[in-house]
Design goal:
The protein is an all-alpha fold. The chain is built from 12 helices and 2 strands.
Length: 288
């Protein structure tokens, strides 16, 4: 269950990464930094926001952070896309990767100047999500169960919106043939910007969800981004369903390996990635 819980975070992060790459062909190496940013916004809203505005008694709790932090991270992503990534349209993927990697380093360095690298606990778990729940076969923390179910719901809604709705079809068509879609009067650059912002918002949402479980640290994004990229590669670059299924599956496998042979837990994802790339280079759910 704990492995499945970690897998839900992998799935949510991988989903945002797959949306950005699959629809925009941008290798977003800043995704881990946006995950970290979402967690820090939740922490700042709870512990410092009231002091900044001269009302110490006012703070932004978990439920408001769950709404506002992803929104702010998405808006920040939109600014990055409009001011920087837009200028790299049509160039090799390497340029976008280097740019987003630079953005990640800047964000990591910025928060590293003000916060402890070892991490700061987030004390804002709502009372209704504290304690444990009896699942019949084990006692499981209520918050972790909420995080698992909520992440799965977000993943399903996102998959459905992209794969089964008119808006999703429009987004996919814009990536396949933007000139033709523009001929029908659709503002393709705006779609691209909003899609990038949405992918970043998913990373911010994962950060808020992770804050009560893991310490909020400037390094939390860099520690998870390599695993998330491995998940996306195994599932198939740009595959929405692949990101969700692979994220959950690898989290589960990682959890089992931690029980059977803990030293291999940090390597099992990359071993599986190597095997999948040898057998199916496009990934389990990817297209050639």
């Amino acid at each position: 269950m704990l492995g499945l819980n970690n897998g839900a975070f992998y799935a949510l992060l991988s989903l945002g990464l797959a949306v950005i790459f699959g629809l925009l062909n941008i290798v977003n190496f800043a995704h881990g930094a946006f995950y970290m940013l979402g967690a820090f916004l939740a922490l700042i809203g709870l512990t410092q926001f009231g002091g900044w505005i001269g009302m110490p008694e006012l703070s932004i709790g978990f439920w408001w952070a769950l709404l506002l932090s992803p929104l702010l991270v998405g808006l920040f992503g939109i600014v990055i896309e409009r001011t920087m990534l837009k200028r790299l349209a049509g160039l090799d993927h390497l340029y976008g990767l280097l740019l987003t990697f630079g953005v990640a380093l800047v964000l990591q360095g910025f928060f590293g100047n003000f916060y402890n690298m070892a991490g700061t606990p987030y004390p804002g778990i709502p009372p209704s999500l504290r304690g444990v729940v009896d699942l019949g076969f084990m006692y499981f923390p209520k918050y972790r169960l909420f995080a698992l179910l909520f992440s799965l719901a977000v993943c399903f809604v996102t998959w459905y919106a992209i794969e089964r709705t008119k808006l999703g079809a429009l987004l996919r068509a814009s990536t396949e043939n933007p000139k033709l879609v523009e001929a029908f009067g659709v503002n393709v650059p705006l779609l691209v910007t909003l899609t990038y912002g949405f992918g970043c918002a998913l990373a911010g949402l994962a950060g808020v969800m992770a804050a009560p479980i893991y310490s909020v640290s400037p390094l939390m994004g860099s520690e998870i981004i390599i695993v998330v990229f491995a998940v996306v590669v195994i599932g198939g670059m740009g595959s929405i369903l692949g990101a969700i299924v692979t994220g959950l599956g690898l989290g589960l496998i990682e959890g089992v390996v931690k029980v059977l042979y803990p030293p291999a837990a940090s390597l099992v994802v990359f071993v599986i990635m190597a095997i999948v790339l040898m057998v199916r280079p496009s990934g389990l759910f990817g297209r050639e």
